[in-house]
Amino acid sequence: MNDVSEATDMLDVPSVDQDWVVASALCGKLLPLNPFSPAEGRLFLGVTVCVGDIGEADRAKVWGMVTWHGGKVSRELNGEVTHLIVTLPGGELYTSAMTRSEVSIVNPDWVV
Predict the structure, then answer these.
(1) 59-86, pLDDT tens digit by residue?
(2) Strand 104-106 to strand 48-51: parallel, antiparallel, or no bridges (unpaired)?
(3) Is the N or the C terminus of the chain less surrounded, counting Cβ atoms within 10 Å?
(4) DSSP per residue over 44-97, as a string?
(5) What is the DSSP letter of 74?
(6) Which of 33-42, 80-89, 101-110 has the least mean pLDDT?
């Protein structure tokens, strides 16, 4: 158990990371707290994805699933990105990711 989980249990006050504030502001409403909890053991904790050639509706679903399970989504293929999600091999993002050994290229099924 980490310090945040211990404090949350003792004080019975929920804790969230700063991404909850930003995401709630972008969505125009208060989002659920669970996906933004700093608790350990979350599936995508430490994972930052960049979404490539995916339609807007599916992009929103990927964002929701990744963030719900502790990951982050970046609009750019920057130094924090660990995974690029694309449906087909090709395009500028794919080509750029191929030159970076620290970026794994996966398809949307990987998230599900």
Answers:
(1) 999 998 998 888 999 989 999 999 999 9
(2) unpaired
(3) C
(4) TTT-EEEE-S--HHHHHHHHHHHHHTT-EEESS--TT--EEE-SSS-SHHHHHH
(5) E
(6) 33-42
Placement of tokens 């989002």 in the chain: 31
The residue type found at 3 is D
Structure tokens belonging to residue 39: 């608790």
Residues forming beta bridges with residue 85, ordered by sequence position: 51, 106
Question: 108: which 2 tokens?
Answer: 């949307």
Closest Cα to residue 58, out of 69, 66, 70? 66
Question: With contact defined as beta carbons under 8 Å apart, do 14 and 36 qualify?
Answer: no
What single-letter DSSP state applies at residue 110? G
Provide Rg for the chain, Cα atoms: 16
Q: Which residue has the tokens 């750029």?
A: 96
pTM of the predicted model over 0.70: yes
